[in-house]
Amino acid sequence: xxxxSRDEVAHLARLSRLALTDDELDHYAGQLDSILxxxxxxxxxxxxxxxxxxxxxxxANVLRPDVVVPGLTTDxxxxxAPNVEQGRFAVPQILGEDE
Length: 99
What we know:
Blueprint: H1 6-15, H2 22-45, H3 74-78, E1 84-85, E2 88-89
Antiparallel strand pairs: 1-2
Pfam families: GatC
Keywords: ATP-binding, Ligase, Nucleotide-binding, Protein biosynthesis, Transferase
Protein name: Aspartyl/glutamyl-tRNA(Asn/Gln) amidotransferase subunit C
């Protein structure tokens, strides 16, 4: 027995605001029926004694701990800058802007 009919596909297409031709409805009905059949087969295999998982491998947090460390002072940050004005990096003027 088919898991989804052509009429159900047409209904879903209308709900999704998709304009499908008769050939497309037949084509998608076959594809969706195949997908639903495969899902049903997988559902039969699932055993009640096996817990559900989000990932097959047991993973732990692989990130390093977030440790606060002191940053650079303004003078240290600007020490390697080619040009400094008013305690900030100075860059060439672009787009003809006035200061």
